[in-house]
Amino acid sequence: MIPNWLLQRAHITPNRIALHDETEAVSFVELHERAVKRARQLAYLGVKKGDVVAVLMKNSVHMVEIIHAIQYIGAIALLQNVRLSVEEVRWQLEHSGARFVVCDESFPDERAVTWNEFVHMNERDGQWQTMYNFEDVATIMYTSGTTGKPKGVMQTYGNHWWSAIGSALNLGLREDDCWLAAVPFFHVSGLSILMRSVIYGIRVYIMSSFDAKRVNELIAQRNITIMSAVSTMVQQMVKELKQPYPSSFRCMLVGGGPVPAPLLQRCDRLNIPVYQTYGMTETASQVATLSPEARHKHGSAGKPLFHMNIRIEKDGEIMHANEAGEIVVKGPSVMKGYWRNEQATAAVLKDGWLYTGDIGYIDEEGFLYVLDRRSDLIISGGENVYPAEIESVLLQHEVVKEAGVVGVADETWGQVPYAFVVLNDEHITEEQLKQFCMNKLAKYKVPKRIQVVDHLPRNAANKLMRHELKKWVKQ
């Protein structure tokens, strides 16, 4: 058991600023008072301990109030992606058994309550959770569904606590830290910022949506020290950057897939402190992060956080240094399992080890390198081909803005790479791009086709949805 984080924080540092946005600053004690009011309104609706309450909102101070209010009651917050279709949202509501859904705008479901309706609700007294049990489920997030039906990841209070502690031990912690939240709170990289804020006692600056130009302004003007991002966000920020970031900006935490080497090199030249990290919804965010003293290990996700163990397995055998296999992780931030899905849980959780489905290797110094998703691996003529490697090469070309690679069936080789690229308002032929790849890749890695498109399919976490690319190939 551990004290309710916001309640404790409001007691220890009541007047310290918890949240900023474009219109207001909210102290920890004010956030606590608002959370209690929202909890009383949820209680009036009939929400009880153990109930699932869905939150379908964009980043806002209101959303943070609701999340803490749900935890005060002892209910479970189901954080839903606002970009989902009505059908997808309803599927999650049905599968989770959610009692209510609090949303920004009207939603066609009898369980839906808009924010404007909610704030005028009556209130009812309740028994608030002054202590949290590490084993209790705090939040559910359905996986982004890059393959198959989404699975509801059960994240416990213990998961969030150890994720925060491990991150602090890795990145360090300062009283004046301010974490810029430009990633959505319905994604684990965003939610983890909120959990860390109340555990650490640091400020969070909330953006309702990502805007590269505005992010650069905030870092320059608002004493931002840390930001979570994915590589596509960083690419846009670098493109918009007019002057160096202040020295007080100490950490650009970049996850969501391998960071292309050209982007890392460009950030190095601009003195942007990029920390490549590896994590997932099932581990409540970070598993490994590249520490400052190991910046020379370009392309590595670093070493495990203090509380985590990582090993590489293939066909039941533990791999030696520099041998690729499935990344397997263990530690107290590993999820409890998948909500109402024992079969899927048993498939990935074995003796406390989480089988991630990601391919990677650990070098002789213990640094983790993430190559790709196992399901994305292309086997061409018996050779393993990693889409991320080809994408990294394509992104080195000055006219290529984005790249996505998938495997397609081939009568001769079994599979061959097929690439999609978004260009920077310039023209280049397919053959020119292929020749560029030929100079940097083995012949079997060069895409059989390179197709120019207006955009690439991405989910709310900005992760490339390769299963959608495969549909594009068939079209």
UniProtKB/TrEMBL annotation:
Pfam families: AMP-binding (PF00501), AMP-binding_C (PF13193). Residues 389-463 form the AMP-binding enzyme C-terminal domain. Its EC number is 6.2.1.26. The keyword Lipid biosynthesis does not apply. GO terms for biological process: menaquinone biosynthetic process. The keyword Ligase applies. Keywords: ATP-binding, Ligase, Menaquinone biosynthesis, Nucleotide-binding. Pathway: Quinol/quinone metabolism; menaquinone biosynthesis; Quinol/quinone metabolism; 1,4-dihydroxy-2-naphthoate biosynthesis; 1,4-dihydroxy-2-naphthoate from chorismate: step 5/7. Residues 8-339 form the AMP-dependent synthetase/ligase domain. HAMAP family: MenE. Belongs to the ATP-dependent AMP-binding enzyme family. MenE subfamily. This is 2-succinylbenzoate--CoA ligase. The gene is menE.
